[in-house]
């Protein structure tokens, strides 16, 4: 059977071809049902892009929270804000002239994504308070079968394509310290903040100096009477691109609002500066060395405390752990109100943490800024072709294809999966590129008689081997306690800059994928008509024009055209402009 049960479109006049089963013109779209796990930034992006480019589809974004926004809905701890300039934290096509400051707060970021959803009417795809609990690939129907819980009932759904946009920094974890449950004071995790908690005149304990802890400390120091912060390792704290916090004046915001070109220039300058940071991550680069020296001086100037300088300023490369601007952090750390308890916590008793030297730290409130489960293992079973769950397959190290797909898991895409460029330069544009890649694949699924596709094992293995070799030359290769590494492998960052990633995944490498067809792979050639010929309003001679404005066929010429450069030759040096 040529179409193998796939639906048919209205056909041209009956002919011998129709009787032979060739009913549709080429590239006839089959109806697709898509499920997306999550309605955070990535889930909304999928909804937006699918809606923009596709017609014959259904989409449901199942979101466990009662509202959209994902991490920006959940993370409401004091001081929670963008840790990169907010104007680089928008979709490339959706600027936000109204950011209040360079490092805008989490509520503003949540509002940005809410406005994005409202503007494009994406809410109609979202089911809130619906948590996906299991997804299983059915090889017979070539569909994902999904189980969802809405708290009161279990719902069954199925789809042709499954997106996992659940986010990585999502499954927050309390520290694994003896006696934590015995603690009788108020216990908080940054990602599960109790808005009713009152810190005024309280002695607060703060565990952790990652990006979250660094934002919390200065934000609570005006309320608490005393803060004891428990730190195990040093970390780099410095505004990237030397962008200190700045509140935009009304005049500045008016210009952003009224002059889109001015805003675009500002955004481009920030984004270009961000991309220019890439050489920092190359272990032996001159940029790493000068950044190391510059940041050391900057941190010393803010700390002005020999003991703290010794403890807090790392000896390992800048960027090994995520760099955090740390607005007011070092100043707060050095203030009289803050006590630094250095080293591991031996246990926690009913009053608070106890150090290995037996020193007790009784606190009224204990804040755990202790991060997330960053294993990339989904928190519910996603069961692929082998019958194994992705969590089991990735028990040791997550081995993905370019951050977006996994072998053995057909028609399955991740946004921000392993080895996505989360710390390589601008992030949101990379998520857009991932969504675009997936949609290019889905376009083929919909129009080329394809049942399913998955990355080949050999492609995943080759990528992992390349990754492991490449990463030895980066600052991430040493064990500085960063969540970018898992069991000795760098699994969270890409093997190059964000711009490198955009080029790497601009076009799908179909040779890395296995396709399964619904019968004859060319059945979609159909009745010999193009869709254009069946559309009386279409320009049937669309290829005729007065000059050749077609895209260039070589990457080099396309790059030159896209990036508006005057360079007419292939670039071979590795020098990069650093702004
Ligand atoms: P994190 O970077 O994993 O930091 C966790 C902190 O908790 C570390 O300082 C860690 O110490 C400490 N810790 C964990 N277990 C501990 C234990 N048993 N005893 C003592 N200390 C312990 O987590 P995060 O700060 O939540 O940040 C995670 C990521 O979220 C960031 O890298 C960033 O990508 C993202 N984030 C972004 C923003 C933003 O503004 N956009 C804000 C916050 C977070 P060790 O270092 O010694 O292990």
From TrEMBL:
Keywords: FAD, Flavoprotein, Oxidoreductase. One of its GO terms (molecular function) is N,N-dimethylaniline monooxygenase activity. It comes from the Eukaryota. InterPro entries: FAD-bind_Monooxygenase_sf (IPR051209), FAD/NAD-bd_sf (IPR036188), Flavin_mOase-like (IPR020946). Belongs to the FAD-binding monooxygenase family. This is FAD/NAD(P)-binding domain-containing protein. The lineage of its organism: Eukaryota, Fungi, Dikarya, Basidiomycota, Agaricomycotina.
């Amino acid at each position: 059977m040529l179409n193998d049960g796939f639906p048919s479109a209205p056909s041209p006049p009956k002919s011998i071809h129709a009787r032979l089963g060739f009913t549709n013109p080429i590239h006839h779209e089959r109806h697709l049902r898509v499920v997306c796990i999550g309605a955070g930034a990535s889930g909304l992006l999928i909804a937006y892009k699918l809606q923009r480019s596709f017609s014959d589809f259904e989409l449901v974004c199942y979101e466990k929270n009662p509202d959209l926004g994902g991490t920006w809905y959940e993370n409401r701890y004091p001081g929670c804000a963008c840790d990169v300039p907010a104007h680089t934290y928008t979709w490339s096509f959706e600027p936000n002239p109204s950011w209040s400051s360079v490092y805008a707060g989490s509520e503003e970021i949540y509002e940005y994504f809410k406005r994005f959803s409202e503007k494009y009417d994406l809410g109609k795809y979202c089911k809130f308070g619906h948590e996906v609990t299991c997804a299983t690939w059915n090889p017979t129907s070539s569909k994902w079968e999904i189980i969802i819980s809405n708290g009161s009932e279990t719902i069954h759904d199925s789809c042709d394509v499954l997106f996992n946009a659940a986010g990585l920094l999502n499954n927050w974890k309390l520290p694994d310290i003896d006696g934590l449950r015995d603690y009788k004071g108020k216990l908080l995790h940054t990602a599960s903040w109790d808005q009713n908690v009152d810190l005024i005149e309280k002695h607060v304990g703060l565990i952790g100096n990652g990006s979250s802890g660094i934002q919390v400390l200065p934000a609570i120091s005006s309320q608490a009477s005393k803060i004891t912060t428990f730190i195990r390792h040093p970390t780099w704290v410095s505004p990237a691109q030397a962008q200190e916090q700045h509140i935009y004046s009304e005049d500045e915001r008016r210009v952003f609002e009224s002059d889109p070109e001015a805003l675009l220039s500002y955004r481009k300058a920030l984004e270009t500066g961000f991309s220019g940071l890439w050489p920092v991550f190359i272990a032996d680069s001159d940029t790493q060395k000068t950044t190391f020296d510059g940041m050391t001086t900057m941190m010393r100037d803010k700390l002005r405390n020999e003991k703290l300088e010794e403890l807090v300023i790392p000896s390992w490369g800048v960027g090994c752990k995520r760099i955090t601007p740390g607005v007011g952090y070092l100043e707060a750390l050095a203030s009289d109100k803050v006590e630094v308890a250095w080293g591991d916590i031996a246990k926690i008793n009913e009053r608070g943490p106890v150090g290995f030297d037996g020193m007790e730290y009784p606190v009224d409130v204990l804040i755990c800024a202790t991060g997330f489960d960053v294993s990339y293992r989904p928190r519910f079973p996603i069961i692929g072709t082998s019958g194994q769950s992705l969590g089991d397959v990735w028990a040791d190290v997550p081995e993905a294809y370019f951050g977006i797909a996994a072998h053995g898991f057909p028609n399955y895409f991740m946004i921000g999966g392993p080895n996505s460029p989360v710390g390589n330069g601008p992030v949101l544009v990379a998520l857009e590129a991932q969504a675009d890649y997936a949609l290019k694949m889905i376009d083929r699924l919909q129009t080329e008689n394809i049942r399913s596709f998955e990355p080949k094992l050999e492609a995943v293995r080759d990528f992992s081997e390349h990754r492991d070799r490449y990463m030895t030359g980066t600052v991430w290769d040493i064990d500085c306690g960063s969540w970018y590494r898992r069991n000795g492998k760098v699994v969270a960052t890409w093997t190059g800059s964000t711009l490198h990633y955009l080029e790497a995944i601009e076009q799908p490498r179909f040779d890395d994928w296995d396709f399964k067809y619904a019968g004859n792979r060319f059945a979609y050639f159909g009745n010999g008509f193009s869709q254009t010929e069946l559309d009386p309003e279409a320009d049937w001679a669309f290829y005729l024009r007065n000059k050749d404005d077609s895209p260039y066929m070589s990457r080099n010429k396309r790059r030159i055209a896209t990036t508006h450069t005057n360079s007419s030759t292939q670039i071979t040096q590795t020098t990069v402009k650093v702004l």
